[in-house]
Design goal:
Layout (H helix, E strand, L loop, with lengths): L5 E2 L1 E7 L7 E7 L2 E6 L2 E8 L3 H8 L2 E6 L5 H8 L6 H4 L5 E3 L6 E3 L4 E13 L2 E12 L9 E3 L2 E3 L3
Antiparallel strand pairs: 1-11, 2-3, 2-6, 4-5, 5-10, 6-9, 7-8, 9-10, 11-12
Length: about 160
């Protein structure tokens, strides 16, 4: 499957139960796709037992930022294994907070979506989370999408 090029997104959610003001959580994903236009549905695949999988089992609203080629550092930061806390990861990343989800929407992203979970399907060692799109915006029309192919971030030629 490494031979299938994929777009790169940052999935985010706000965990209201983590500390006095809660905590923002983020995860880089390449297994993200449109499912339906009517109603507007998208799907993201999450590793079972990951922090995002556990959080989205509890929090029904979340967000997606479609990353641009210039945001490779953001994708890499949120994809690290054994990484530092999410609070520190968001520290110098520009974002706004989604009105529906309260989740971070990354500044400069090619598109941002806010979603409400419609269904969760366990499939092997992953959970497929299907979300209804509540809001969609296009904060940046500049640049190409960040893509992932054969284990590396790539740019379209």
């Amino acid at each position: 499957m490494s031979r299938l090029a994929a777009g790169v997104v940052l999935v985010t959610a706000h965990d209201p139960d983590d500390g006095p003001r809660g905590e923002d959580v983020g995860m880089t994903a390449t297994a993200f796709m449109s499912v339906s236009l009517d109603p507007p549905l998208v799907l993201v695949s999450l590793r079972n037992g990951s922090r995002m999988d556990d959080l989205l089992a509890e929090v029904p609203v979340w967000a997606v930022s479609v990353l641009s080629e210039s945001q490779r550092h953001v994708a890499g930061r949120f994809a690290m294994k054994g990484r530092i806390s999410d609070r520190l990861l968001f520290e110098d990343v520009p974002y706004t907070r989604g009105e529906e989800s309260g989740a971070p929407l990354i500044g400069g992203a090619l598109a941002t979506l806010e979603c409400r979970t419609e269904n969760r399907v366990v499939a092997g060692d992953h959970t497929l989370v299907i979300g209804r799109v509540l809001t969609a915006a296009f904060p940046s029309s500049d640049g190409a999408p960040l893509t992932y192919f054969k284990g590396k971030y790539r740019h379209l030629a």
